[in-house]
Specification:
By secondary structure, this protein is mostly beta strands. It has a domain of 47 residues: Rubrerythrin, domain 2. A hairpin with a 5-residue loop joins strand 1 and strand 2. The radius of gyration is 18 Å and the shape is globular. The protein starts with a strand and ends in a 21-residue tail after the last strand. 7% of the residues are buried.
Length: 68
């Protein structure tokens, strides 16, 4: 999922926001520090990756961990 970096034009606070809707990416966001909706997306955003476990063995591909 895309994790976007924002900076507030009012107070300069930098923060990250996880946005799942592509239509929300370029909209101004509310700053968590001052509450004003003047935060703009910065270039060079990251991706957030969740960790899910579907195997009870705890390793990749179900073969167990090479570190155990």
């Amino acid at each position: 999922m895309p994790l976007f970096n924002y900076v507030c034009a009012n107070c300069g606070h930098r923060f990250e926001r996880l946005l799942t809707s592509s239509s929300d990416r370029d909209k101004t966001q509310a700053c968590p520090a001052c509450g004003r909706e003047e935060a703009r997306r910065e270039q060079g955003s990251n991706f957030a990756m969740g960790r899910s476990s579907t195997s009870s063995s705890g390793g990749c591909g179900g073969g167990g961990s090479p570190f155990s």
